[in-house]
Amino acid sequence: QVQLVESGGGLVQTGDSLKLSCAASAQTFSSYTMGWFRQTPGKEREFVAAVGWSDGSPTYADSVKGRFTISRDNAKNTMYLQMNSLKPEDTAVYYCAARRTAYSGSDWYTRRDDYNNWGQGTQVTVSS
To answer: What does the DSSP assignment read for 74-123?
Structure first.
């Protein structure tokens, strides 16, 4: 098991940028595929982005492609989500997720059930 702690959420305006961080406790952080999901009240938790062992294999949901960038720093056991050109529909609680895997990519893991470690979430609110 790995403990995950998100930070960086807040209230911003349309068009603004925000950077989320996810700090992980795992000593073998580099063996985990990491992902970001988001959820609004009454809706299912949806996939946002995932990154494999290194920064070289990210996967994005169509709704954020070109605006969000996922990255990780294995030396700091931390994953990031840079969110640019934010829209009101990006408003949600954002969750960090992790899955230990022998697969170095991220494209296999885009479903909520693919991950077995979750953070507590951080609220992102984009005002119009």
So the answer is: TTTTEEEEEE-S--GGG-EEEEEEEEE-S---STT--SGGG--EE---EE
**How far apart are alpha carbons 11 and 13 in whole angstroms?**
7
Q: Which two tokens stand for residue 46?
A: 């949806």
CA distance 20 to 10: 10
Say how far apart CA 46 and CA 10 lie, in whole Å: 19
Q: 26-76 pLDDT, tens per residue?
A: 888 989 999 999 999 999 999 999 999 876 689 999 999 999 999 999 999
Contact 51, 33 (CB under 8 A): yes
Burial group, residue 7, by CB count within 10 angstroms (0-12, 13-18, 19+): middle
Which residues in 14-91 belong to E strands, given as ranges?
Answer: 18-24, 32-39, 46-51, 58-60, 68-73, 78-83
- The tens digit of pLDDT for each residue in 109-128 reads 999 999 999 999 999 999 99
